[in-house]
Amino acid sequence: MSWGMVFFGVWPYVALAVFVVGHWWRWRTDQFGWTTRTSELSEKRWLLWGSPLFHVGALLVILGHIVGLLVPASATAAMGVSEAAYHMSAVGLGIVSGAVLTVGVVILVLRRFILHTRLRLVTRPGDVVVYVLIGLQVVLGLCETLGYGLLNIQPGFDYRGSVSIWFRSVFYGNPAIGLMSGAPLLFQFHAVVGFAIFAVWPFTRLVHVWSVPFGYLTRPPIVYRVPASPVSEGTRGAGAR
């Protein structure tokens, strides 16, 4: 079995299987641990900066990946988006979102491992794994955007004609291993690490993503009534007499 088959034909399915089964196991055995284990009580000032930057940057990165990996080039062309316009938008969004996410990750890492000893002492192995994988993905993604998108170090290479097709083919059940094996090593490593994040997801604080309280957006507002004070009740009773 070739390395291409292992990393691009087998590993994605192993990671996705662990992702699904791991979430089921975590929910059955550790519902009370299904949280972010917030450290706000230990330190708040740096968290107020790092957390919003991290989450906004991550959301932008996810949106960029959804468009870049799941939307075929033929679809954007049919919508009247030229290749040049798409390329400029993708590079611009990639740089901005990558920069925001990088700043957020750096702040959170410094806060947890360097600035505050108490946080470092309560850090779990899963936290370290998450920070390492996400940090590595951010670096790889920025290198791809700057090197292959902005500087065009390999003219003629288009990830939408190779990496994106391979990614979609994984979910079709027939992975196009040859396309991914022919992509630059940077993109190959990025894909392997990306599926590694899916594999560790159920066993880390990342599960809190599925606990976002969207129901609060649609439920009726709660009306709080202030109970009448004993003084006012007594005054009203005396008046009645």
Give me the secondary-structure topology.
Layout: H1 3-29, H2 45-70, H3 73-78, H4 83-115, H5 117-121, H6 125-150, H7 163-172, H8 177-181, H9 185-200, H10 230-240
Task: Provide an overview of this structure.
This protein is globular. It has 241 residues and is an all-alpha fold. It has helices at residues 3-29, 45-70, 73-78, 83-115, 117-121, 125-150, 163-172, 177-181, 185-200, 230-240.
**What is the number of independent domains?**
1
C-alpha end-to-end distance? 96 Å
Number of strands: 0
Spatial extent as radius of gyration: 24 Å
In CATH, the topology is named Fumarate Reductase Cytochrome B subunit
Percentage of residues in helical conformation: 55-70%
Overall mean pLDDT: 86
Order of helices and strands: HHHHHHHHHH
How many DSSP helices?
10
In CATH terms, the superfamily is Transmembrane di-heme cytochromes, Chain C
Query: Main beta sheet, described?
Result: none
Report the β-strand fraction as a percent range: under 5%
Secondary structure category: mainly alpha
- Give the second-level CATH assignment, the architecture: Up-down Bundle
General shape? globular
Kindly provide the name of the CATH class.
Mainly Alpha
Low-confidence stretches: none
Brief rundown of the structure:
Helix content is 68%, strand content 0%.
Essential attributes:
Fumarate Reductase Cytochrome B subunit; single chain; mainly alpha; 10 helices
